[in-house]
Amino acid sequence: MHNPDYSISTPENVDLHLELAGLGNRLLAGIIDQTICIVVILIMGLAAWGVFTLVSMSAMPGHVKNIAYGFIIMVLIFGTFIIHFGYHMFFEGTWQGQTPGKRVAQIRVIEQNGQPVTWPAVIIRNLVRVIDTGLILIGILAIMIDNNERRFGDLAAGTVVVRERNSELLLTAKDDMALESAGTAGAEMLDIGRITPQEYEILVSFLKRRKTMSKKQRPVVAAKLMEHFKQKLSDDSARSAEDYLEGLYQAYRTRALT
Length: 258
Description:
Layout: E1 6-9, E2 15-18, H1 23-57, H2 62-94, H3 100-105, E3 107-111, H4 119-127, H5 129-134, H6 138-145, H7 152-157, E4 159-163, H8 173-182, H9 197-209, H10 217-233, H11 241-257
Antiparallel strand pairs: 1-2, 3-4
Helix pairs in contact: 1-2, 2-4, 9-11, 10-11
């Protein structure tokens, strides 16, 4: 396993360490996504050929057939254009930075500040994809040179591609058992779905590292995290900071498994 090599300092004074996706994972995701696009375009081509055949065998007048042929070709060209440019935009925008290929490769596009990728960033990075993939795969060279493995689309959009991590594995078995016993009292009524994967990473990072923090730093960080999550979840429950964070952790895990 590679060591995390992308660090973000959050407003809660917690360092979030992420692992960059790596060229191999990005190529795997690209191959899968490109294969899906090609298959869809081929299916569209076969459908167009079938319609062509039906039109040619019909009793339509010649000029009507020519109009039909032109319309079919126009639809095929437009559909190919939409798939080529819209595939990545659609999935990255609706799947919070992932496409089917990225999901298989377990990588994700995020903002450089660690927040989920936004639609403007998705659109920008995929418009620049034409340069990254069109000029003899110049994007691969950019990934190899840049310290954060960003292609030109990432540089323009302010994004970075990181590996998905199983956050549950960040906690030791002893810690996990302790959190299991803590339960989710009070947290089951909250809209846990509003917590982003990046915020969950911050939460897990604190729960893992809290025992190594100083007695002065630990309650301060816990209080700041609790305040952040309470504001986001519109929660006014009265619990100690660490009990509250443990409840969120368990509630998030429970929701992910259901």
